[in-house]
Each structure stands twice: as structure tokens, then as C-alpha cells.
């Protein structure tokens, strides 16, 4: 029997992909106690079947899975039409910084390291759901300076000085980062503030990871001369600005 706490704020349909039976049972038990519905499967093939038959709000994906790594699965979810925006938490036994970065690069929104507490996992799920529900209700098109992004389609382009659009091929993290800057132009954010806002508070990622993604983003913006919009503010952090932009001729 499932006990539903009175203060349960965000019941969700959760897909858990985990080959260890004891962890599947623990996840199902603890998350259902929080009022969520959990479908726990042992491999990627079963997960795909669940996704085609159910509306899933959050996916928990183990890193090491039989028949295909969790990392590849996350990547495929990010490129899939119906699963592109799905909040994803990776479950990992790997604590190396590079591994965590690889997980987030593949498109995971957050991760927990085994052994993790069900309570911690639940609070991360709640935070992710809050963010994803917020983003679904906000405007779908943002425009700052030369940059345009559509938050529904995840497409972005820059308007070149000639007036022609230049499509921006953004990775998942770069998209989230650019979106955050475009929602908050002209304001300076420190690396730790960016980690909180873009990666989510409670993520344990080194601040230099932010620099890596800023560099990537600038590289993507450079062909459209929009990289200068993303300023480094010495000793403070980063800012998206429209000051000093070239004039658009048409
Ligand atoms: Ca495993």
C-alpha cells in the first residue's frame, strides 16, 4: 500500500532504469512513499518501451547498464522528439569529475552518486520538476541583441550584421546557459551563481566546468560575431550584454 504524505507537492511519473534489483526496489519503495508513480526497469530496451507507452515526467538513469550505457541512452533521449526536455537524473557509482562532466554533457540535468539517500534524491526530483514546470509556462521566444532562442523548440540563431540568421548548434548545457543569460541580460553572475541557476543548486560540480561551457558557447557564437556579447567580468564572473554590438544593416 502506498502512503501519500499530506504535503506532497509534485507527484510525478518516474521512470527508473537500473539493472540492480535491490536499487530498483529501493527507488520504487521510497519514491512511491513520496506519492510518485514509479516504473522501474532493468535495461534500455525496456525503458524505451515504457517511454513509448507512458507519459514520463522524470527519468532516473543508471550509468552502467547492460546492453548500452546509460550515457548513450541519455544522449538519445536528448535528441528524441518527445523526450528532449525530459528532466533526467543520472545515477552513478563514478565520482570522478570528468565522468560527471560527461554525464551532464550527454544531457543529464543532475546526478546522484551511489550510495545516495532517498531523501536527497527526492529533493532533487522536486527541484527539477519545479524548474521544468517553470520553463514550460514561460515565453517561448527570447531575443537579446543579436541572439534569438525558442525555448519550446530549443532552436537558436544569431542575426548576423548582414541581417541574415545564423543557426546556433547548441549542446544541452550551452542551451540552458544561453537561455539563462538571455533571461537575465546585463547582469553579472559568478560561477557559483551560474552553477546554482543553470545546473541547479545542490550539484557538486567544480566551478571550472562553468568556464568550459562558457568557452564552448563563445565558440558557437563566434561565427555570428555574437561571442563578444558574453563578457568576462574580471573577479566577478560573466555577463551577457548588448553594449558595443555591431549594427545590423537590415
Ligand atoms: Ca548498473
Short recap of the structure:
The chain is of the alpha/beta class and 250 residues long. It is built from eight helices and twelve strands. It has two domains: 124 residues, Rossmann fold (3-Layer(aba) Sandwich); 100 residues, Winged helix-like DNA-binding domain superfamily/Winged helix DNA-binding domain (Arc Repressor Mutant, subunit A), CATH 1.10.10.
Task: Give the topology.
Blueprint: E1 13-17, H1 21-33, E2 37-41, H2 44-53, E3 58-62, H3 70-79, E4 88-92, H4 97-106, E5 110-113, H5 118-137, E6 141-144, E7 147-150, E8 155-159, E9 165-168, H6 172-183, E10 188-189, H7 191-199, H8 208-221, E11 230-233, E12 237-240
Helix pairs in contact: 6-7, 6-8
Residues 19-20, 62, 64-65 line the site of calcium ion.
Tell me about this structure.
With 250 residues, this protein is of the alpha/beta class. It has two domains: 124 residues, Response regulator (Rossmann fold, 3-Layer(aba) Sandwich), CATH 3.40.50.2300; 100 residues, Arc Repressor Mutant, subunit A (Orthogonal Bundle). It contains eight helices and twelve strands. The strands form three sheets. Strands 2-1-3-4-5 form a five-stranded parallel beta sheet, with helices on both faces. Strands 6-7-8-9 form a four-stranded antiparallel beta sheet, with helices on one face. It has a three-stranded antiparallel beta sheet with strand order 10-12-11. A hairpin with a 3-residue loop joins strand 11 and strand 12. It is elongated. The chain starts with 12 loop residues before the first strand and ends in a 10-residue tail after the last strand. Bound molecules: calcium ion (CA). The site of calcium ion has 5 residues, from loops.
Amino acid at each position: 500500500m502506498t502512503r501519500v504524505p499530506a504535503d506532497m507537492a509534485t507527484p510525478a511519473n518516474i521512470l527508473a532504469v537500473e539493472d540492480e534489483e535491490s536499487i530498483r526496489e529501493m527507488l520504487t519503495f521510497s519514491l512511491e512513499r513520496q506519492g510518485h508513480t514509479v516504473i522501474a526497469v532493468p535495461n534500455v530496451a525496456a525503458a524505451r518501451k515504457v517511454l513509448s507507452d507512458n507519459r514520463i515526467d522524470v527519468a532516473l538513469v543508471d550509468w552502467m547498464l547492460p546492453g548500452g550505457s546509460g550515457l548513450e541512452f541519455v544522449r538519445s533521449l536528448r535528441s528524441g522528439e518527445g523526450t528532449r526536455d525530459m528532466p533526467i537524473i543520472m545515477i552513478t557509482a563514478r565520482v570522478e569529475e570528468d565522468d560527471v562532466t560527461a554525464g551532464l554533457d550527454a544531457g543529464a540535468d543532475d546526478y546522484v552518486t551511489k550510495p545516495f539517500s532517498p531523501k536527497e534524491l527526492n529533493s532533487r526530483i522536486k527541484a527539477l520538476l519545479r524548474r521544468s514546470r517553470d520553463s514550460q509556462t514561460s515565453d517561448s521566444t527570447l531575443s537579446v541583441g543579436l541572439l534569438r532562442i525558442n525555448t519550446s523548440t530549443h532552436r537558436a540563431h544569431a542575426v548576423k550584421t548582414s541581417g541574415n540568421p545564423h543557426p546556433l548548434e547548441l549542446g544541452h548545457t550551452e542551451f540552458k546557459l544561453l537561455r539563462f543569460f538571455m533571461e537575465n541580460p546585463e547582469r553579472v553572475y559568478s560561477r557559483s551563481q551560474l552553477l546554482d541557476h543553470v545546473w541547479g543548486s545542490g550539484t557538486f560540480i567544480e566551478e571550472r566546468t562553468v568556464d568550459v561551457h562558457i568557452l564552448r558557447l563563445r565558440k558557437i557564437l563566434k561565427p555570428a560575431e555574437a561571442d563578444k556579447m558574453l563578457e568576462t567580468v574580471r573577479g566577478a564572473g560573466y555577463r551577457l550584454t548588448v553594449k558595443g554590438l555591431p549594427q545590423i544593416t537590415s
